[in-house]
Amino acid sequence: MTTQAADRRVVVDPRFAERRAQVERDSRRRRRNQLLGGAAVLALAAACIGALRSPLFDVDAIQVVGAEHTPVAEVVAASGIVIGQQLFDVDGGAAARQLEALPWVRRARVARAWPGGVRISVVERTPVAQVAVAGGGWFLADGYGRLVAQVPEPEPGLLVLDGVVPAGAAAGLQLSDWATGAAALVGRFGERVASRALGVRFTGDEAERSVEVLLRPEVAAGDEEGELPPAVVVAFGPVGVEVGAKLDALEAVLGQVDGRCVATIDVVVPADPRVTRLEGCE
User: Are strands 117-124 and 61-65 parallel, antiparallel or unpaired?
Assistant: First the structure.
């Protein structure tokens, strides 16, 4: 009985054998197709990378727009982008940050212009005030307290900030916090204030600076050729405190009060502005 069992052969239905062989063939075919597909993707990726790295996509031209005070060559140099550089390697964000370190540049944007160009757009700063330089000359400052340029003579139409910039200072430096606050105040002047503003000065110590604005006095018609009364002193109080409300209060006072003989205007408390007149003035 044992010998007969050992001599027996396992018989498999041919249909099952054929099915198993077909499954194995399909598995090999799928693996082959996957390998071929992967190789094709890699080849395509390599071709694309090769094309992007080819001279076809080099930086061939750099366009600069918006730069009026900064030479184009200086803008391009500050961006760090050079002709012949791979366009794919241009980092617009990093280039923009480098450009915004230039004295005149407030904002910058750098964009690729495929297949071989770069466009640099800058928005320049607007001077609103000027401050004397120790030893001679003047620095122009924008409403954010940035020194944008040094000039030999004061610029007509720009207010003078009290104080001096140390000799040897360079364009691009930032004014002190309180001087920056004063420059920001000047940048927000409305039409009435701007048309009469003569200068800005500071009172108090380093710990708590207050701002005073000097305004051109009003005189009666026909008295323009005579001796002018002193400038009107506008007390704003601490730098940067309730700036908008104080400017609104000052604009309202100038629009409602007879400006002749006015000595001071106090808007430290904007809800309760106070006006004093020159003694003996009629």
Answer: parallel
| Residues 96, 205 within the same domain | no
Residues 6+ apart with CB under 8 A from 170: 147
Boundary (domain end) residue, out of 124, 152, 169? 124
Does residue 215 fall inside a structural domain?
yes
The C-alpha atoms of residue 155 and residue 141 are separated, in whole angstroms, by 11
Q: Which residue has the tokens 């120790």?
A: 134
Segments of 101-227 assigned E as strands: 105-113, 117-124, 127-133, 138-142, 147-151, 159-165, 197-203, 210-215
Range of the domain at 87: 58-124
Note whether residue 41 is domain-resident. no
In this structure, the answer to whether residues 81 and 196 fall within a common structural domain is: no
Question: Is residue 138 domain-shared with residue 273, that is, in the same domain?
Answer: yes
Cβ atoms of 58 and 66 closer than 8 Å: no
167 and 227 part of one domain: yes
Residues 156 and 273 in one domain: yes
Digitized pLDDT (tens) for each residue of the chain, 282 residues in all:
455 555 556 555 666 667 776 767 777 777 777 777 776 666 666 555 555 555 677 999 999 999 999 999 999 999 999 999 999 899 999 999 999 999 999 999 999 998 889 999 999 999 999 999 998 999 999 999 999 999 999 999 899 998 888 888 899 999 988 889 999 999 999 988 999 999 999 988 777 889 999 999 987 665 556 577 889 999 999 988 899 999 999 999 999 888 888 999 999 999 999 999 988 776
